[in-house]
Structure prediction request, 802 residues.
Amino acid sequence: MTKEQFKEDFRRRLQEKFTNEVEEASNGELFDSLGAVIQAYYSDAWKQTRTTIRDNRAKQSYYFSIEFLPGKMLKSNLLNMGLLDIVRDSLEEMNVDLEDLCKVEKDMALGNGGLGRLASCFMDSIASCGLPGNGNGIRYDYGLFKQKFVDGNQVELPDEWLREGNVWEVRKASKAVNVNYGGKVYLKEDEEGRLKPVYENQQVLRAVPYDTGMVGYQNDMVNTLRLWSAEIPEFEESKYLSIEERRDFRDLTSVLYPDDSNYEGRLMRLVQEYFFVSAGIQSIIRSHKRAGIAMKDLAEYTAIHINDTHPALCVAEMMRILIDEEELSWEKAWAITVKTMSYTNHTIMAEALEKWPVFMLREVVPRIYMIIEEIDRRFVKEMSSVVDQEIIERTRIIKGDQVHMAHLAIIGSHSTNGVAKLHSDLLKSIVLHDFYLLYPERFNNKTNGIAQRRWLQLANEPLANVLDETISTSWRSNPNDLHLLMNYKDDEAVLQKLAETKRKNKVRLANYILNATGIEVSPDAIFDVQIKRLHAYKRQLLNLLHILKLYFELKDNPDADIYPRVFIFGAKAAPSYTYAKHVIKCINEAANLINNDEEIQGKLKIVFLENYNVSLAEMIIPAADVSEQISLASKEASGTSNMKLMLDGAVTIATLDGANIEIRDIVGDENIVIFGLTEDEVYSYYETQDYLAIKIYENDLELQRILNAFIDGTIPNIQIEGQEIFDSLIRYNDEYFTLRDYHSYIEAQKTIERLYRDKKRWQQISLINTAEAGHFSSDYTVQRYAEEIWQIEPVKGLKKKG
Ligand SMILES: *Cc1c(COP(=O)(O)O)cnc(C)c1O
Prediction:
């Protein structure tokens, strides 16, 4: 590809589609044309990938996830195709700034947070490792709500991400399938004496796939992310539907449920789950048959991954198709299903464990419910000769009037993994201990990872360039080569260059902050960052307590030697999660108070940026000095923002939770700041039940002053919110041990400040974090999934670019 070639293609496209010249076109037209040209460039490789996989009869994996959170795709596609520099330079020669076009693209935000973002990092890595793996999900018309603050309160606006169209997707009407649900079902013998389901009054939805190419990193591989949209089926009778009825059909895939770490037991959600599961499984079976391979060999060619429990119905839907439609015996169908399926658990939080009332399943998917009953019956029967009745009662799928989706996923698959070492150990020893006794061989760990291409190569070009100059470019394809940077940890010139990249990124973020909020921040201050969904267990509140402590110290002594800090927050709260919204309000009001208090001479600034999403993360993370990973030990399954921030050279202040432990193990105690209760200590409090938050409060004048600020008017405008938070700590005994960890956190923050004052030491720690972060590349994570769970191999024989 030459610049001339690209310019010609780009101009032609703009002319054909918008009858316009580059000089006259709007950014929207330019972006749209650029996207279309890029897509045309990879369309051959996309097709080639499919035919090569088919010709090789290669085993493929399908990653079922109710959420994907890719963010913007323009630069990522350009980078992976090796065209970023050529396109950027060519555009510049036409007086077009690539960054301006990037701003036109809407974030694809079909996910809440970590879960969906992990799925998208995996899609990038699977393609980049040359592995045949596809995504399967829902094409929501509206992504995660847009967050605004009005008087410090979160307000939710719809995210109309499709309004200007989506250049990356391809509607595949020819691959549509029907999804049946509702109605009644009974079994009837056919001529050969087989029991066959007979349906009455079923509803039918047409599931239409929209495919998006997942471009691998400079390897000619393009996998498919297939997202399903609900439409009105093409039957005669559907012509007579009213407008409302038509809307009901489409509404099914209209919105993403905005709950993170929280189970949403609504009927519509259940239909969504069945919808994308059924459409995905049908389409897999269809292409398997088209390839002419026997159904009994399905598991040799197909791996299906259940990402969290939302797609757990995969197990029952696969059984339904194999027995009702393919006429396999139960035993054969079950063996194939278990061998095909694998499951990832993402949480130990009880309120997040999905359970559906029996009556809902009966109503929405009566045949699927029958099959689940039979799976449950056989499970109970089989296990009764092996283990105690109590264990069976605790592990069976249907308990009372509830169907336990995690149990279905574990029983119906050959692999259950957690997402960090600690998390997987907790699953084995406590949360899923009974299952571990039944199926020890099924349990394994796959620590999460992040796509270093997006979070370093694209988001942090200044750092990427210094790395290239220092250790050459091999780290770009082999993230472990970042380790070469360790050779420079005492090289003052390199440390200085790294410091300059951080400062550059901080200046950029400071400008963004000024534009977005009107708040002026100094890039010389410590940028202390906590970005993640707002949840009590993540303890944004603990961060706020530290800020208030510093504030009062300065109020008592305006000349106190406190290093200037900018506290940066980004977080959405689920719209129904009142407590989380109240924390947002309190942080915003504290920000108003502190940012405008001249007495403290600008030493503390609080910036809560609106609408935290992938693009904002790409702006904040490269500018972070401090990474706040302060969840109560045992509650954060892994975390991934901890990995992103480390990669970009932030220093972590953390509890021993999730992947923080693995970060500590790899960088060493001197290069991370650890505080707080351990998981063992948390669990022993649960046993002894002798935690008393009020006792801590009563005996601690410092904490009294800080907590009273929530209820005595010190922080203005939070009468209700402040009281609720105060009560959550004192009256309701501080569920997440915030007060217990407070002093340990304060000490850790003092360590942070002391380290930061030692510029060289800080820069060294920062370097070491970047150097060791290759370990957490999702390339390695997906390779472990490929080898140990899916048994898939890189595709051979893809044509290299000329
Ligand atoms: C990485 C990421 C997350 C996950 O953050 P955690 O701190 O691991 O919970 C959530 N949202 C966005 C936009 C992200 O990029």
